[in-house]
Give the backbone structure.
Amino acid sequence: MDSAAAISLCPSTPAWNLDRPFLTGQFYQETKITPGTTEYKGVSADSSSGADKAIGCYHATIQELIVIDDLLSTLIGIEGRYISIKKVRGKEDDITFQVDASMDLALQEFAKRLFPLCESYILINQFVETRSQFKTGLVNHAFAAALRALLLDYQAMVAQLEHQFRLGKLSIQGLWFYCQPMMGSMQALSMVVKKAAANNCVGSAVLNLLQSQAKAMAGDHVVRSLLEKMSQSASTAYLGILERWVYEGVIDDPYGEFFIAENKSLQKESLTQDYDAKYWQQRYSLKDEIPSFLANAAETILITGKYLNVMRECGHSIQVLTRSHCCYMLTQ
């Protein structure tokens, strides 16, 4: 079954889920960026404050407390009183941040440093919500689940920072200090999800994207380890499909993600008279999209499963080795 046919058979997402943007992270208002602007992306010279009183009316010390409170909200994708979040019209993955122009310039600079982290969180959260639908496939489901677990840790960090702020122990410099270690990892993941969303990656394409990004980040051990961990999590379901094919000769691929295509229109009846029948040659074939870590063994995997499948179709029983049995044999 090809991926298009598999997707058409998937359960559809309820309309109420799509009609309520707060469930999918698509609730930010759109803004139009005019060409030729000299402002840094994320800091607007226009006053776009959601409060009645401009922040510049307060003393710098009070401004710092207000900005910290707003940034703690912005870090988890919620607008503050003097920091607003806008989505660029026509660009789903382009987020801008606007601040009250009367804000102290030093505080604007600190806010500007944290905006990339805020944007990364928003993009990753949107990806998790949209890629949890049935039609996106098992690999995207597993990848989204791993990202969701990471975001829970990130939100716990923000909650701890907010607790310190309520105790009066958090300054704007301290907020930047504690958030800085997360910047590289979150930005690397946001790059991955932007590419995956732009190319509508599913199955093998997601695994190849994670592999290539991990190799590209070879100079950053922390980020590379995180991407490799994400790759392992995303490939778990895929390897489950591979395991059934190699050990049983069965393709259990509900979303058409596996790199072996099955043509169910070909029947097995002619195998007993003609060993070189079309069933053997054309029933199963390799797709163009193959995971990079399986590319060298793709032909061997195809032939292995075909032999088992033919034996099963001809009525021969196949003994499926369990993981414990395999481990026992390897130790002997």
In short: The longest strand covers residues 83-88. Residues 20-31+55-183 form one domain.
